[in-house]
Amino acid sequence: xxxxxxxxxxxxxxxxxxxxxxxxxxxxxxxxxxxxxxxxxxxxxxxxxxxxxxxxxxxxxxxxxxxxxxxxxxxxxxxxxxxxxxxxxxxxxxxxxxxxxxxxxxxxxxxxxxxxxxxxxxxxxxxxxxxxxxxxxxxxxxxxxxxxxxxxxxxxxxxxxxxxxxxxxxxxxxxxxxxxxxxxxxxxxxxxxxxxxxxxxxxxxxxxxxxxxxxxxxxxxxxxxxxxxxxxxxxxxxxxxxxxxxxxxxxxxxxxxxxxxxxxxxxxxxxxxxxxxxxxxxxxxxxxxxxxxxxxxxxxxxxxxxxxxxxxxxxxxxxxxxxxxxxxxxxxxxxxxxxxxxxxxxxxxxxxxxxxxxxxxxxxxxxxxxxxxxxxxxx
Length: 379
Fold this sequence. Notes:
This protein is an alpha/beta fold. Helix content is about 40%, strand content about 15%.
């Protein structure tokens, strides 16, 4: 069976590793190399990740031009311009590739509008699986687009059961083609290697700190976390806040920090390849997002045995965390402060019990579990 993955990107996002782990799982766990798996490279996006992709997976280059180097990024407007460039740059190249190679399945992530539109001209053999990456914001255009092309899509996979039910209620797709397929986030081999790396930044391993991780965008709501940290300082004066990530709101967030007079306590460390070495030393990881589905770093924090607090936002965190003690009301500063103080004041026995409970909650996010669910869909 020939399976192609389409997932063009131009910034560092969590979905990248989910796509790689999904494709790798088909080669690692299948017998007799039953699945012929390929990754479509639109703009040179997979060059940097070749060492993470199974060597038995082909990378199919649509062009020799590595356009990713030149695409505008780091603001909302620039990102939308880049989407349009990728759409038109890859239009005929992708169409010709699919009609020439005739894969059985084309699994599409991220910039999905192009392959879905091109399905009008695809050969009849190739079936499209639309992979919903994150909580889908349903505006008029997206709903209309999905609705008119729904008969061209063989399956729609959702990262959480809550999102699947949400799409059923939206009545865009036939509910028979909606599936829950959780992301293959957990990679224990990678975790065991990365946790050994020394946290050398300014003796941070000797400091008490809480941590937030993610793209510096409106969605991640880091301004709420920064304001909460300012108030927490009253009772935890030696505590620091570490923020990992890059994005269009970086300057805005740094201005907030300066205005609150806590620039000596808040560390912006940019994008980090290894988040585990920061997580295992943190007092608590806080997910302040306005929406998530489910929140990759949430699961990475649980693997790292880090105490966790998350906004009770749509759609993923509650499905993993369940208990209100790990959740604060979405975008509610007072509730965040209250819950964060509770977590920081837990004794060691309470922390241990929480970690055991949370470890049980993430079993569905392994590569093997993802593989078993994916092949059922492919069959």
